[in-house]
Write a structure and sequence with these properties.
Elements: H1 2-17, H2 23-39, H3 47-67, H4 73-87, H5 89-98, H6 103-122
Helix pairs in contact: 2-3, 2-4, 2-6, 3-6
Length: 132
């Protein structure tokens, strides 16, 4: 079972790594992180990190809108939802029904959270004030 899980994850990450990043990819990552939070706030993604992810996806969306006036964010969201349902919804349903901790899933949750927060924080316009 663990080998199958790693094979699926490998192919998903491998194909995503060779594709151009799109807003729907980041929306998919957000949906994944949100479901990690809903699955178990203690083991996977806590509420504080979920709030940071929420701010990050807003920053990412804002940047995509600023750089591409023709982007249809609703269509991108629909693509992300479809991808989520095809790739991960059944896996999360299985983990919900088993009600057990998965180190593999925890790693994936952290990976998607890191991806979102790294890019999202790079778009923040916080200036550093001189405090001396």
């Amino acid at each position: 079972m663990r080998i199958i899980f790693f094979i699926i994850i490998y192919f998903v990450l491998f194909f995503n790594a060779h594709a151009k990043d799109s807003l729907s990819d980041y929306y998919s990552a957000y949906i994944f992180v949100k479901n990690c939070n809903e699955l178990d706030q203690f083991f996977y993604v806590d509420n504080e990190n979920m709030e940071i992810a929420r701010k990050s996806i807003k920053n990412i969306e804002k940047e995509y809108k600023n750089t591409n006036n023709n982007i249809d964010v609703d269509a991108e969201w629909s693509k992300a939802v479809t991808k989520w349902k095809e790739d991960f919804e059944s896996m999360f349903a299985m983990f919900k029904s088993l009600d057990t901790y998965s180190e593999d899933l925890a790693g994936m949750c952290k990976l998607y959270l890191l991806m979102l927060n790294t890019l999202g924080s790079s778009y923040e316009n916080e200036s550093i004030e001189k405090d001396f």
